[in-house]
Amino acid sequence: MASIPQLEFTNKDAIPDIVNGVRSTFHTQKTKPLEFRLVQLRKLYWGMIDNQKAIAAACKQDLGKGHFEANLMELDFCTQTIIYCCNNLEKWAKDETAKDIPFANKLLFPKIRKEPLGCVLIIGPYNFPVNLLIAPLAGAIAAGCTVVLKPSENAPNVAVVLQKVIEGYLDPSCYRVIQGAIPETTALLEQKWDKIFYTGGATVGTIIAKKAAETLTPVTLELGGRNPAIITKNADIRLAARRLLWGKIVNAGQVCVSQNYTLVDKEVLDRFVAEMKTAMKEYYPNGTRNTDDFGRIINDRQWQRLKKMVDESKGKLLMGGEMDESDRYIEPTIIQVDSQTDSLLVDESFGPLMPILPVNNLDEAIRIANEVHETPLGLYPFGNKKETDRCLREIRSGGASVNDGFMHGSLPTMPFGGVGDSGQGAYRGQASFDCFTHRRSITSTPSWLEGMMSVRYPPYTGKLEKMRSMGNLKPNFDRDGNVKFSLVSYVLSLGAGSKTGGLIRYVLVLLAALGLRQYLG
Ligand code: NAD
User: Fold this and answer.
1) Residue 428 — left, alpha, or beta (φ > 0 → left; ψ -120 to 50 → alpha)?
2) Which of 86, 119, 174, 256 is catalytic?
3) Which of 113, 297, 361, 366 is most buried (most C-beta within 10 Å)?
4) Which of 138-142, 324-328, 440-444, 486-490 is least confident?
5) How far is residue 366's CA from residue 166's CA, in Å, rounded to a whole number?
6) d(Cα 160, Cα 158) in Å, to the nearest integer?
7) How many angstroms separate the alpha carbon of residue 204 from the centre of ligand 1?
8) Coil/strand/helix, residue 479
9) Whose alpha carbon is nearest atom 14 of ligand 1?
10) Is NAD a UniProt keyword of this protein (predicted)?
């Protein structure tokens, strides 16, 4: 593999001035006009396109990432995200009329304005070093924030190219890159931010959340997970094998949402392993060693960590197992383990290791999944509909792909995020804009409304009932928690949600009003 260049770290002493500069720009209102944001997004798009060869080459150098993966999962993911932001920005940024406002308060013209959060910090990881830095950046630009980015020092070639793209194509007074490792990131965390967006492991996520708490800075944390796949005896075993193998060969298993372990019903274990081996031969007829279609582990430290996990496992090797430190190569490897406390299950492997734990039934699989990690990032149930529904109901997770590997995590427009200790907050699609946006509630009280408003001023005598009559909601339930039957609410709920229902309700209300008018003469 190509040697790793010495990434030039930003001088720590320069960091406060750089951050202050970007923060001051935010206060000049420069990033507020939509046209400014759109121009920056368009320039970012062209920066990515103009540098696509350099980006793919850097991915190859850092992670052994091949042409297909680098283009599809790094470059195209970002360019698609940018175009999607451009196409939708006007719609997302428009003021929203506030919903469910009592009639009397509608005269205050209540609305929700989408304000940029301010000056934000985005810290990226090494595994998808382009995608996981640029996709949040697109959201932050769209939202009107100014941004400081800290690429992962563990993917140094990509870090260099991205700095060139960001600082060469975007307005440098608004968007800056800081290069560095722990000392530089620590210096960044000393600065005041309006939001910190972090992708990476939970240990560092905890450091970031603690630091942010000191200044009540909001965070989005995109963390890792010990994600379970579950295969029942009613699953399509061939499909399960093909799809889960895909989930582990992408990026040599260095994917936060790939399955960390698979719980397989004992009855179908042999078939599943046989199908995995067949799929492996089909995907890689000449093996994974000398192909552009299979990557490498990011660095020696991570390679050693993975080797240790395998060495400490008490499991039985069923497929693969070849490892070469000089090349940071690890062959896709299946190991049958006999306990949920095996080294391959207790930690996130983040590599092409596929431990399989045989189980007696779905009850046992669900119990183990919940014991290994209560809130993983992803969940991959394979079985009939009843079984996969049950898995979704009884196992929590950030997201899930039913009858597949991490498909839900590969859609650039679908909100993506963890739950519990696999993360907080979400982005992608409109969620990327929302993630960096403050929804500011605004009312405007007309001066001519003062007569009506006087009901809120002291002296309060006799005013409480008047206020209550102006729109207080009435309960439709009794003391036992049961819903009370009322003809009016029954009629109003007819066909709720459908256009025809709305029309029926409208006609009924009209008839009632006409009847009332006749009755009143
Ligand atoms: P990493 O080593 O690239 O570190 C991530 C970032 O944290 C880097 O920018 C690094 O400089 C910074 N950092 C490291 N130590 C720090 C410290 N002590 N203080 C402040 N900053 C520090 O990546 P990683 O964390 O090893 O990445 C792997 C993990 O990331 C896995 O757990 C994986 O599941 C998770 N991940 C999650 C997602 C997601 O979207 N949820 C995506 C990718 C990776």
Assistant:
1) left
2) 256
3) 297
4) 486-490
5) 45
6) 5
7) 7
8) coil
9) 182
10) yes
- Tens of pLDDT, residue by residue over 229-262, are 999 999 999 999 999 999 999 999 999 999 999 9
Rounded distance between C-alpha atoms, residue 423 and residue 219, angstroms: 10
Q: At residue 439, does pLDDT exceed 50?
A: yes
Is the predicted pLDDT of residue 86 greater than 90, yes or no?
Answer: yes
Q: Residue 197 Cα, ligand 1 centroid: separation in angstroms?
A: 11
Residue 518, pLDDT above cutoff 90: no
Rounded to the nearest angstrom, the distance between the alpha carbon of 504 and the centre of ligand 1 is 55
pLDDT confidence tier of residue 312, bands split at 50, 70 and 90: very high
May I ask the CATH architecture of the domain 12-223+430-439?
3-Layer(aba) Sandwich (3.40)
Give me the pLDDT at residue 104, please: 83
Token code pair at residue 279 = 């799929």
- Max Cα-Cα span within the chain: 96
Q: At what angle do helices 52-63 and 156-169 cross, to 10 degrees?
A: 160
pLDDT at residue number 310: 98
Q: Where are the domains of the chain?
A: 12-223+430-439, 228-405, 474-521
Ligand 1 contact, 210 CB (< 6 A): no
Q: For residue 377, which atom of ligand 1 is closest to its CA?
A: 41
Distance between start and end Cα atoms, the chain? 92
Over residues 306-311, the mean pLDDT reads 98
